[in-house]
Amino acid sequence: MLTLKYYNPTQDPCQSWKKGKIAIYGKGGIGKSTTTSNLSAALSGMGYKVMQIGCDPKADSTKTIMGGRRIPTVLEQLKAKGDELKLEDIVFEGFGGVLCVESGGPTPGIGCAGRGIISAFEKLEELNAFGVYQPDVVIYDVLGDVVCGGFAMPIREGYAREVFIVSSGEMMALYAANNIAQAIRNFGKRGYAKLSGLILNAKNIEREQEIVQQAVEEIGTQVVAYIPRSADIQTAEAGGGTVFEQLSSSPMHGVYRKLADCVLSMSQDIVEESPEEYVF
After folding, report:
1. 21, 32, 63, 123: which one is catalytic?
2. Which partner from 8, 107, 160, 190 sits 20 to 30 angstroms from 70, CA to CA?
């Protein structure tokens, strides 16, 4: 099985919890949450205890892990319960035992979405969420159109160690990927998160893989996984779940398991000793 080393950064908001910490960024609508949720499902099927934290005002990161159900966000519960807020009010168990959290955001047109993420992170830390649940891997699903303020929290404050960017070969998606990479490099100089690579979530545009390969060379990173466009993903989401829950024999199982293996092998907090049998 895979065991986890201890890492002791200068600043670690997770205190005694020292396990896999991964952030996945990407332009809105690129398939970042779909990729993250299927990755979480794959990891849970490999025997890991996973926590997925949605860092987007839309609060839809964990929807397919929760059977199509939207869960209350940290900000919503803070507003409703104040000092009486408990972990069980904001952490929900979904498919495969994946622990789901949504940071949430302000009412559209009012307040700062980035500040909402900061408030959510502060509350999770105050309630010692990582110490209580002891997840093996935490995955932050982060909107990457703007990498500032709260949206930079996972890479700026030591919450995540490895960062992956989801992109297609479309111009605006690659433009956003370049901006995210620049932000990660800036924070990396201070000993924070590092950019591990780009996950190509294919849109089947002409010369897509060639275009993305050229882009990653210019950015200074690598393509670590290729997610082919598949109708199975849309079918599963229409049923309110991931491909692991909704489709028992989809070839996409192998694609996301391969991504999970890649993410694990690139994490500096995880050492592979021997593989475990898949649950799914």
Report:
1. 32
2. 160
